[in-house]
Design a protein that fits this description.
The structure holds two protein chains of two kinds. Chain A is an alpha/beta fold. Chain A has 17 helices and eight strands. Chain A folds into three domains: 126 residues, Rossmann fold, CATH 3.40.50; 65 residues; 156 residues, Rossmann fold. Chain B has three domains: 110 residues, 2-Layer Sandwich (Nucleotidyltransferase, domain 5), CATH 3.30.420; 144 residues, ATPase, nucleotide binding domain (Nucleotidyltransferase, domain 5, 2-Layer Sandwich); 56 residues, no CATH class. The chains are: A alpha/beta, B alpha/beta.
Chain lengths: 366, 330
């Protein structure tokens, strides 16, 4: 059995760690590239969103390399992500690719477990006793690595906004993450974090700079994956903006497990704030995008960048309302609609103009 | 003196300004698909117009090909066109509240309050309602684009033309022609539909308050100007250098940046022989198209590589950059 998983931010680092620790064979799909996108676009419906196309491309490339088991999260309506696993299964089968599909349920409840019964039974035959007994430990290692990735990425967000040589932080972050990727045990991960923080700390910073503060909100794939959002986070950072976001693996996983009090409270706060514009829960990240924007405005942020894939229902709803929020609060919001036909130059132009505007406003109004 | 270069999708604008941001010389050229030649010709025109010897203290580049322009001539400031346009207007009309800019393939709205840009938007992938479409339709109707606006003003019975998409607009125009409508009325109808398209797709409900400044190449079009005034119910102000505002903004930004020593390669660039070459890098699955700018037989700049393999080498030193490129050519 060779397991594979899609690319999404730093997900491959900890997914790989889980498989490796549990002694399960795995294949990391090649880094998302033009080829990945071309494959994804070719084999999917034109109107479907960009994350779908890229994930499909990841799977095709991984299967070409000999993977035979795909692990993918599922989710519920209203977002089409809920249909991803079903539709992608059909497409891959039509392509004549052979594989087994495991859906990680978005919520761990009884119906989800029942639905996965057959898959679990199938899996049992393949996994050795050792695989199964080490699995809890593997999950723990995976979790630890994920938290470590997030810690380094969050540090990089702060450093990047103050770097003296543009692009330096990104290089050092990649170096730090590569070190973390190699760590095998809990203790090694701890060491990799310290080492990573040292590497990032070595970046020359202008400590006196007061960077603009911008929060990125929106659909989670576009927010979390730099290949999908064309490096919005990095671009903003390199323009001297300190970026904040609440979409992280940990926050979404904790939410689906129904644990993590602080995380839940934060989300609830955003949800409640959104209610003055939206009477009910639209689903996915829609309410959070709106609520977070309102609260960021109140927290004194300079602006919000709202990311969404073209034709994404929940976020299209949000973008209409965000226009209103922006007008009511006099708070800058830039919505970027991403798909494979968008040219990167335009995104850069809009981001540059947005940052110029924020700078301008700050000098004038503060 | 400062040089401002605005290389847009259809035209290239070059201005020469003095220390008070006054325009001394200017050039407005069609790219004809050759932006490099257009920039060089623009500089030649400037030299001719200025007459006196020119000493450039700073250069600003803007427009969708701003990076190309910057590599070509050596620019001190490279700025996006939204900021450049806003900067140019603010001094011309300090209390401006709305800037409408319609160019060859881009259209923008910039909202200002208390002398500060507070909101802006740009057209999405659709180029309906921009200059290039007007160009095409004028050509199809067999009238020059310069006469287009004037003809619209002569209309007495404006025809409704579908404006959501240029493809439908064209179909509808042909249909109206076949029904026997006057060309003037169709042109006026087209102006109306382009304005509606702009308001629906670009400004999308943003609060348009007076004073409204209208600029960009399309501002020359009297028909569109009139249609905008009718639709908004506001007076539209078209600044004297409406078609050069981006370049003026870029020159102004270069002056404000006050470079101690300009990166400008000199007015001779207008006569250098430039060419570009591209190759597909096979370093990874991304297969970036790497562009090279070649002057006097030597690669002088490189871009398009996502990872920075070649462009970073050029940023470090020219020798190193050339080695990197050469190794790829084998």
């Amino acid at each position: 059995m060779k397991v594979t998983f899609p690319h999404l931010g730093t997900m491959h680092i900890f997914c790989k760690a889980i498989a490796e620790t549990a002694g399960i064979d795995y294949i990391v799909p090649p880094k998302t590239s033009k080829r990945t996108l071309t494959l994804g676009v070719k084999h999917s419906n034109e109107c479907i969103c960009l994350p779908f196309k890229i994930i499909l491309g990841n799977f095709i490339e991984a299967l070409e390399l000999g993977a035979d088991t795909i692990v993918m999260v599922g989710s519920g309506p209203p977002c089409r992500l809920g249909l991803y696993d079903l539709v992608q299964k059909v497409i891959l089968e039509d392509l004549g690719l052979h594989y087994r599909w495991l859906t990680i349920p978005p919520r761990l409840d009884w119906p989800a477990l029942l639905k996965n019964r057959d898959e679990t039974r199938e899996l049992k035959k393949e996994l050795s006793l050792k695989n199964i007994t080490t699995f809890p430990y593997a999950l723990w290692i995976g979790w630890k690595k994920m938290m470590a990735c997030e810690r380094l990425e969050k540090l990089a967000l702060r450093v990047r906004a103050r770097e003296v040589i543009t692009g330096r932080t990104e290089k050092m972050l990649q170096k730090a993450l590569a070190g973390l990727d190699k760590a095998k045990t809990g203790r090694a991960i701890e060491r990799a974090i310290i080492e990573g923080e040292k590497i990032l700390g070595s970046v020359d910073q202008d400590r006196g700079r007061q960077p603009l503060r911008v929060a990125i909100v929106g659909e989670l794939y576009t927010v979390m994956d730099p290949q999908i959002n064309r490096g919005v986070e990095r671009k903003l950072g390199e323009m001297g903006v300190e970026v904040t976001r609440t979409s992280w693996f940990s926050s979404h996983i904790l939410r689906s497990l129904g644990v993590g009090r602080e995380n839940r409270r934060e989300r609830l706060r955003y949800y409640r704030a959104s209610l003055q514009y939206l009477g009910y829960d639209v689903g996915a990240e829609c309410n959070v995008s709106i609520g977070e924007t309102i609260l960021r405005a109140k927290d004194g942020y300079d602006g919000v960048v709202h990311l969404m894939p073209f034709a994404c229902m929940p976020e299209t709803t949000a973008s209409g309302i965000l226009d209103r929020v922006s007008r009511d609060l006099g708070f800058p919001v830039l919505t970027l609609i991403l798909d494979e036909q968008e040219n990167e130059g335009r995104i850069t132009t809009l981001l540059e103009a947005f940052v110029d505007m924020l700078m301008w406003r700050r000098q004038r109004f503060h | 003196m400062y040089l401002g270069i605005d290389v847009g999708s259809i035209t290239t604008k070059v201005v020469l300004t003095d220390a008070e941001d006054r325009v001394i010389a200017h050039a407005y050229l069609r790219n004809g698909g050759k932006p490099i030649a257009a920039i060089q010709q623009g500089i030649k025109n400037i030299i001719q117009q200025a007459g006196n010897p020119i000493s450039i203290e700073g250069v600003g580049a803007t427009g969708s090909a701003r990076h190309l322009a910057a590599y070509l001539v050596g620019a001190d400031v490279v700025k996006n066109e939204i900021t450049a346009h806003a900067v140019a207007v603010i001094d011309y009309m300090p209390d401006v509240k709305t800037i409408i800019e319609i160019g060859g393939q881009d259209s923008k709205i910039i909202i200002l309050r208390e002398h500060v840009v507070v909101d802006f938007a740009m057209n999405t992938v659709c180029a309906a309602g921009t200059g290039s479409f007007l160009d095409q339709q004028a050509a199809r109707l067999g009238i020059s684009i310069e006469d287009f606006g004037g003809r619209a003003l002569r209309s007495h019975n404006r025809v409704r033309i579908a404006g959501r998409c240029t493809v439908f607009a064209e179909t509808d125009m042909i249909h109206k022609q076949q029904l026997g409508y006057q060309t003037e009325d169709i042109i006026a109808g087209l102006c109306d539909s382009l304005v509606k398209n702009y308001l629906n797709n670009v400004s999308r409900g943003k609060e348009i308050l007076a004073p409204v400044v209208f600029q960009g190449g399309v501002a020359a079009n009297k028909g569109i100007r009139q249609a905008l005034e009718r639709e908004l119910g506001l007076e539209i102000i078209v600044p004297p250098h409406f078609d050069l505002m981006g370049a003026i903004g870029a020159a102004k930004l270069a002056r404000r940046a006050r470079p101690s020593e300009t990166l400008f390669k000199g007015l001779e660039v207008a006569n250098w022989h430039f060419s570009t070459r591209s190759f597909e890098c096979d370093g990874c699955g991304n297969t970036c198209d790497v562009m090279e700018l070649i002057a006097k037989g030597e690669t002088v700049a490189c871009w398009g590589d996502t990872c920075g393999k070649y462009s970073d080498a050029f940023n470090r030193s020219r020798d190193e950059g050339q080695d990197a490129v050469r190794s790829n050519h084998g």
